[in-house]
Amino acid sequence: MIKDSPNPPSHPDFDTSTLHEVAYRAIDHYLNPKPATPESSDGLFTVRADLGTETLLVNASQDLACISDIAAHLAFEIDGTQRNVALGICRMLEGVQLLVDKALSVAHPAA
């Protein structure tokens, strides 16, 4: 019988040290995980360490206002118990907004 391709070439000088290194690194990653530090969290988003309290509170306040607007818009598009849920979310967001605004005014009182 005639083969379509020749025998694969032999690799007597093939270096397996790279394969061993990768295998040991993978095993070490799963069997000996390193403890999580705040700088190396597995979260998708992180907050820069150099941001001040005022910047964080201002951004939180703006985000809460946006979410509240989205929930209020949604509440007037739907009816029934789903509307009540959306309005409840709006009211909870307003409460959190008041807390953030108070924290912002305490952290940096207006002159």
UniProtKB/TrEMBL annotation:
One matching Pfam family: DUF6124
UniProt protein name: DUF3077 domain-containing protein
UniProt source species: Pseudomonas aylmerensis
